[in-house]
Design goal:
The complex is a heterodimer of chains A (328) and B (538).
Chain A (H helix, E strand, L loop, with lengths): L4 H31 L6 H12 L6 E3 L16 H31 L7 H22 L6 H17 L15 H35 L5 H4 L5 H33 L8 H19 L8 H23 L12
Helix pairs in contact in A: 1-3, 1-5, 3-4, 4-5, 4-6, 6-8, 6-10, 8-9, 9-10
Chain B lengths: L1 H15 L1 H15 L1 H4 L3 H24 L9 H30 L14 E7 L3 H11 L4 E6 L5 E7 L1 H27 L1 E8 L3 E4 L8 E4 L11 E12 L5 E12 L1 H5 L3 E6 L4 E3 L2 E17 L5 E5 L3 E2 L7 E7 L7 H6 L1 E9 L2 E4 L2 E4 L8 E9 L16 H5 L3 E10 L3 E3 L5 E17 L3 H20 L3 E9 L5 E9 L6 H16 L10 E4 L13
Helix pairs in contact in B: 1-5, 2-5, 5-7, 6-12, 7-11
Classes of the chains: A mainly alpha (328), B alpha+beta (538).
Chain lengths: 328, 538
C-alpha cells in the first residue's frame, strides 16, 4: 500500500506543533512554580473538604491535619494558579495534537503507527502525557508538570530529529496484528512507567530535604510532601506494571508465531525481563522494612533507567531480532 | 545436633526472608544483563568466538565464567533456584495462613472505634436492632459477623478484599509453574533448521540428519521426532522500490499422520508470522536466498549440473556467496579424481551491477542475476575427514597447493567460461531456496496458561484492596442510638479516605432519620499515624 505523502507531512507538522505546545506548557508550569506561594500541606485536604461538603449532606468532616474543620475555603485564583491552569490546558492541547499526528501517520501508511523507533517514541510519550493528565485531574500535583514534561520533550525532540524515519510500510516480520497489540501495550506501559520514574526522582529530592531541611531548598520548596510523591509513584506503577507484564506476554506470543520460540533471550527480551524484575523488586521493596521510602524510590528510578537503556542502547547499539529502529 | 538444626532453621529463615528475596531479585536482574550485552552462544556462536579472539585473556576469563552462556550457566541457575526456593518458603506459610483466615471470622470490634485511622459517628432515632439491620444491607458483599456486646451494644465487623491475597498467591504459584513448564520444554523440545530448494524440494522430519542444524533438548536423542514431510512448491517475494521486503510467501505442501501412508499432500501458504502447525511441531519460514545453477561440460563430453544454495551476505541486496563443487565424471581412480575435482566459488548478485569488473547487487529480486566466480581444480578435501561448509571451499587445500585457481570470470545468465583443459562452465540462472525452522515444544501451551494466570493474579492482587470496617450501635438513655463507624485499610491505605467517607455516610445516612444525618455527627478520615497496624505484604 502506497504512503499518502500529504497526510504524512501533516502528521510531521502536528508532531512538531505538539512538541512546541509542550514546551510552552512547561514554561507556564515553571512560572507557576516560580511565582506561586509555597504549597501548603493542606491543599489536598482542602479539596477533600470541598468534595464532601458539596455533596448536599450536613456531615461534618474533621481531617487530622486541617486546622479549621468544616470551613469550606474558596480563594480567588492567584495569578500563578491561573498560569498553572493555562499550562494544564496547553498540555491537553499538546496531547490532542500529539494524538492527531499519530492518527495521521497511521492513515498515511495504512498500518498501526508504531512500526519504528520514531513512532514508538511518539506513542510512548503520548501515553506518558495522558497518564500525567489523569494524575493531574485526580491529585493536586500540577506543579510537577514541568518536571514530567521535560523528559517527554527531550524524548520527542530526539525522536523528531535523530530517530526520525519517513512514513513507510513495515517489513514482513512486522506485518501481524500482534504489532498492534504488543507494541502498543509495551509502549503505553513504558510511557505510564516514565511518570513514576520522574516522580521518584522528585521524591528522592524532597525526601533528602525533609530529612535535612537545609538541603536542596530551592528545588524542593514547592514540591508536594514526600509521602504524596511516594504514593503517586506507587499508584502509577501498579497501573503500569501489570500492563507491562501483559505487553511482554503478548510479545512472547508473537515471538512464538514469528521466530519459532516464545522466549529466546534476545537482547531486547532480556532487558525487558530485567526491567520487569526491577519493577517487581520495587513492589517488594515497598513491603520490606528498611526499604520503604527512598530505597523503593531508587529502585523505581532504576527501573526507569533500564527502560531508557532498553529503548536506546539495545535498539541502536546491539544487534538483535528487535532491530526495527529504522535508523541509519 | 541441636546446633545443626538451629543452623538449618536460621538458614531457612534467612532464605525465606523478604530481604533475601529482594536481594535475589536484584541478583537475577543483574545476572541476566550480561546476556544482553555480551554475544551469546545460543544466539550467535561465531560472534562469541570473534569476541574471545579479540579480547584475549579477558575473553577467555569470561568464557570460563560462562558469560557467553549466561542462561545456561551454573551461577544464573543458582540465582533463580535460590529465588524460587525462597519463594516457596514464603508461599507455603502464606497459603496456610490464607486458608485459616478464609475460615476465620472477622476480628472483634475494637473497644474504641474513634482511635481507628478512619472514624465517623452520629446519633440515630432508631433502635440498635434497626441500625444493625440496615447497616448489614449496606455491607452486602462484605464478610461480616454480628456481635452482641456486654453493655447491650451491638456491632458488626466487616472485612473485604480476601481476593487480594488469593491473587497474590496465584501470581506467585503461576510463576513457579511457568518456570517448571519452561524447563520441561527445554528438556523435551527441539529446534532445527533446514534449507529447502523451492520448486519441489522436500524435507522430512524423520531424523536429525535431514537438518542443516539441530538443537535437541536434553532428553531428545533424535529418534522420536514427530513425523511429517514438507515440500516447497514455490516461493514469492515482493519488494518496495527501495529494496525493503514487502512480503514473503512460500507455497508448500505437507503431509503428516495418515497422509504419510496415503501419500496425500495438503497445500499451505507459509508466511512470516504464520507458521505451519502440524503433528505437534511448527514449521517457520525463516529466510530465503538464491541457488545458482551451473552446467559443466567436461572435455570427454560428459555434463554435470550443480545447484547448491549460496548464502546471502548482504541482507538488503541479497548479494550472496557460496561454493558449488563437482566430482569429475567417469573417473574411478580416487587419486585421479582428487586431482580433477572442481569448485566454483565467488559472489552471486540477483540484480547485478558492474563497476568495471567488480560485481555488486542493487536489488534483492532476481532481475538480472550474475556471478563473479573463481574456478578451482584439484583436491577439494572431501576425503580429508574434516567437516566442510557447503558455502565455502577448504582453504587449507588451497594453501597447501592441492587446489589451484584455474579461472576467474564474471558470468551473466547463459554465458560460459572455458577452462585450460577444455572444460566449459555455463551459468544457467538462479532458483530460490527457503530456510525453514522446525520447532517442537510440548509444554508451551502450559507456559501460556501460567502466563494468563500470572496476569489474572497480578491484576487481582493490585486492584483488590483489603478493607475493614466496624459499626457499633450503642443504645442511649433517651431511646436513641449512638452509631459509630471505624475503618482500617489493611493494604494500600491511600485512597481509603474518600472511600471511607462515602461508606460511612451511607452507613450513618441510612441509619439516620429520613436520610438526614444530625449535625452532631462527625466523620474523620486521616492518614493512619505511627502505631496504627498495617499489613506487610511479600
Amino acid at each position: 500500500m502506497p504512503v499518502n505523502e500529504t497526510l504524512a507531512t501533516y502528521s510531521d507538522w502536528t508532531y512538531n506543533s505538539a512538541v512546541a505546545v509542550y514546551v510552552l506548557a512547561m514554561v507556564f508550569y515553571l512560572c507557576e512554580q516560580a511565582f506561586g506561594r509555597v504549597a501548603k500541606k493542606s491543599s489536598q485536604e482542602a479539596r477533600e473538604l470541598v468534595a464532601v461538603g458539596g455533596g448536599g449532606s450536613e456531615v461534618v468532616v474533621t481531617t487530622a491535619a486541617s486546622p479549621a474543620p468544616g470551613r469550606v475555603i474558596r480563594e480567588e485564583r492567584s495569578r500563578a494558579e491561573r498560569l498553572g491552569r493555562m499550562g494544564a490546558a496547553l498540555t491537553v492541547l499538546g496531547a490532542v495534537l500529539h494524538g492527531g499526528s499519530l492518527v495521521l501517520r497511521g492513515v498515511a501508511t495504512g498500518r498501526a503507527p508504531w512500526g519504528n523507533m520514531y513512532e514508538y517514541g511518539a506513542l510512548l510519550c503520548l501515553a506518558a502525557v495522558v497518564t500525567w493528565l489523569v494524575l493531574m485531574r485526580k491529585y493536586s500535583v500540577r506543579r510537577l508538570g514541568a518536571f514530567v514534561l521535560l523528559p517527554i520533550v527531550i524524548l520527542m525532540f530526539l525522536g523528531g530529529t535523530v530517530l526520525y524515519t519517513n512514513a513507510a510500510p513495515v517489513q514482513p516480520a512486522l506485518q501481524s496484528y500482534w504489532l498492534v497489540i504488543h507494541v502498543s501495550v509495551i509502549s503505553a506501559s513504558s510511557g505510564i512507567l516514565l511518570v513514576p520514574g520522574i516522580v521518584s526522582v522528585l521524591y528522592l529530592l524532597k525526601n533528602a530535604n525533609e530529612r535535612n531541611p537545609e538541603r536542596l531548598v530551592k528545588i524542593t520548596r514547592k514540591l508536594p510532601a514526600a509521602d504524596v510523591l511516594d504514593r503517586l509513584a506507587y499508584r502509577t506503577t501498579i497501573f503500569g506494571f501489570p500492563l507491562y507484564t501483559v505487553g511482554i506476554i503478548c510479545g512472547a506470543i508473537w515471538a512464538e508465531a514469528a521466530w519459532g520460540r516464545f522466549w529466546g533471550w534476545d537482547p531486547k527480551e532480556t532487558t525487558a525481563f530485567v526491567a520487569w524484575v526491577v519493577y517487581a523488586a520495587y513492589l517488594h521493596a515497598r513491603a520490606t522494612a528498611g526499604w520503604r521510602g527512598s530505597g523503593a524510590a531508587w529502585i523505581n528510578v532504576l527501573g526507569f533507567a533500564v527502560s531508557v537503556f532498553n529503548l536506546f542502547f539495545i535498539n541502536l547499539v546491539t544487534a538483535g531480532l528487535h532491530s526495527y529502529a529504522g535508523v541509519g | 545436633m541441636r546446633n545443626a538444626l538451629a543452623f538449618l532453621r536460621n538458614t531457612w529463615r534467612g532464605l525465606t526472608a523478604m530481604r533475601t528475596a529482594l536481594s535475589l531479585l536484584f541478583l537475577l536482574a543483574l545476572g541476566a544483563m550480561p546476556g544482553a550485552l555480551l554475544p551469546q552462544r545460543s544466539l550467535n556462536s561465531p560472534k562469541v568466538v570473534e569476541y574471545i579472539d579479540q579480547h584475549g585473556w579477558w575473553g577467555r576469563l569470561l568464557d570460563k565464567m560462562q558469560f557467553f552462556d549466561v542462561y545456561g550457566s551454573v551461577w544464573f541457575a543458582a540465582i533463580y533456584v535460590l529465588l524460587f526456593v525462597s519463594l516457596v518458603g514464603c508461599l507455603l506459610p502464606r497459603t496456610l495462613d490464607y486458608y485459616r483466615q478464609s475460615r476465620a471470622k472477622p476480628v472483634l470490634t475494637p473497644r474504641n472505634l474513634s482511635r481507628m485511622p478512619h472514624h465517623a459517628s452520629s446519633t440515630a432515632d432508631t433502635t440498635a436492632e434497626e441500625v444493625i439491620t440496615s447497616a448489614k444491607s449496606v455491607l452486602r458483599g462484605w464478610r461480616t459477623v454480628e456481635r452482641e456486646e456486654a453493655d447491650g451494644a451491638r456491632s458488626i465487623s466487616a472485612e473485604r478484599g480476601f481476593l487480594r491475597e488469593a491473587g497474590n498467591l496465584v501470581f506467585h504459584f503461576a510463576l513457579l509453574g511457568m518456570l517448571v513448564a519452561f524447563a520441561l520444554g527445554k528438556m523435551f523440545g527441539y529446534e532445527g533448521q533446514v534449507i529447502v530448494q523451492a520448486g519441489g524440494g522436500q524435507f522430512c522430519n524423520s531424523g536429525v540428519f535431514n537438518y542443516d542444524s539441530f538443537k535437541p533438548g536434553l532428553r531428545v536423542d533424535g529418534t522420536q521426532l514427530s513425523p511429517f514431510c514438507v515440500k516447497v512448491d514455490d516461493f514469492h517475494a515482493s519488494y518496495l522500490a527501495n529494496g525493503q521486503a514487502e512480503s514473503f510467501l512460500a507455497g508448500i505442501s505437507y503431509q503428516s499422520g495418515d497422509d504419510l501412508s496415503s501419500g496425500t499432500w495438503r497445500p499451505y501458504p507459509l508466511k512470516v508470522n504464520d507458521p505451519l502447525r502440524t503433528a505437534g511441531d511448527r514449521v517457520y519460514l525463516l529466510g530465503h536466498g538464491y541457488t545458482p545453477k551451473f552446467t559443466v561440460t567436461f572435455p570427454n563430453g560428459a555434463t554435470r549440473t550443480g545447484a547448491v544454495q549460496w548464502k546471502p551476505v548482504d541482507p538488503i541486496t541479497l548479494l550472496s556467496e557460496g561454493a558449488t563443487k563437482f566430482d569429475p565424471p567417469q573417473i574411478t581412480d580416487s587419486q585421479e579424481r582428487r586431482r580433477n575435482q572442481l569448485a566454483i566459488t565467488g559472489l552471486l548478485a540477483p540484480s547485478a551491477v558492474f563497476s568495471g569488473t567488480l560485481l555488486s547487487s542493487n536489488f534483492p529480486e532476481a532481475r538480472k542475476p550474475a556471478v563473479a566466480i573463481d574456478v578451482l581444480r584439484g583436491d577439494l578435501g572431501n576425503d580429508s575427514g574434516r567437516g566442510q561448509s557447503i558455502f565455502s571451499i577448504d582453504q587449507s587445500m588451497v594453501d597447501s597447493g592441492r587446489l589451484k585457481k584455474v579461472a576467474r570470470q564474471n558470468l551473466e545468465v547463459g554465458q560460459q567460461v572455458k577452462l585450460d583443459d577444455g572444460t566449459v562452465i555455463r551459468f544457467d540462472g538462479v532458483d530460490d531456496w527457503v530456510s525453514l525452522q522446525v520447532a517442537h515444544d510440548p509444554t508451551q501451551v502450559w507456559v501460556l496458561g501460567f502466563a494468563v494466570l500470572i496476569i489474572l493474579g497480578l491484576g487481582t492482587s493490585l486492584v483488590v484492596k483489603r478493607r475493614r470496617v466496624w459499626v457499633r450501635a450503642v443504645p442511649q438513655h433517651d431511646g436513641r442510638t449512638l452509631v459509630e463507624v471505624g475503618g482500617l485499610a489493611r493494604t494500600d491505605q491511600a485512597g481509603y479516605g474518600e472511600e471511607f467517607v462515602g461508606l460511612a455516610r451511607e452507613l450513618l445516612g441510612v441509619t439516620g432519620s429520613q436520610g438526614r444525618v444530625p449535625a452532631t455527627s462527625a466523620v474523620r478520615s486521616g492518614r493512619p499515624g505511627v502505631g496504627v497496624p498495617q499489613d506487610k505484604e511479600s
